[in-house]
Amino acid sequence: MADHAELARIAVQLFKSHPGSVLFEHLRARTVDHQLPASATEAELRDLEGQRRNFRYIENLVRSGSTQPPSPEE
């Protein structure tokens, strides 16, 4: 399994490209920016919160990878 630094570099390569940034913004719209109606069930709320947590993890990988120096093999 890749370590955090390697995953961060991969995330930057993927999500900083044009297709990756389109996907990234789509995922943000479907998770972080999405609001459930007041009638949402607890299960729906928990599911969306889990999706948001996963998005934030990816977002933090991209942020972390953006601040790292390039690896020697790049």
Largest β-sheet summary: none
Catalogue the unreliable spans.
none
Helix content: 55-70%
Number of helices: 3
Rounded to an integer, what's the Rg over CA atoms?
A: 15 Å
Question: How large is the share of residues in beta strands?
Answer: under 5%
Question: Would you list the SSEs in sequence order as H and E?
Answer: HHH
Could you tell me how far the N terminus lies from the C terminus, measured between alpha carbons in angstroms? Answer: 19 Å
Please tell me about this protein's structure.
By secondary structure, the chain is mainly alpha-helical. The protein is built from 3 helices and no strands. The protein has helices at 4-15, 18-30, 42-66. The protein is elongated, with a radius of gyration of 15 Å. The protein starts with a helix and ends in an 8-residue tail after the last helix.
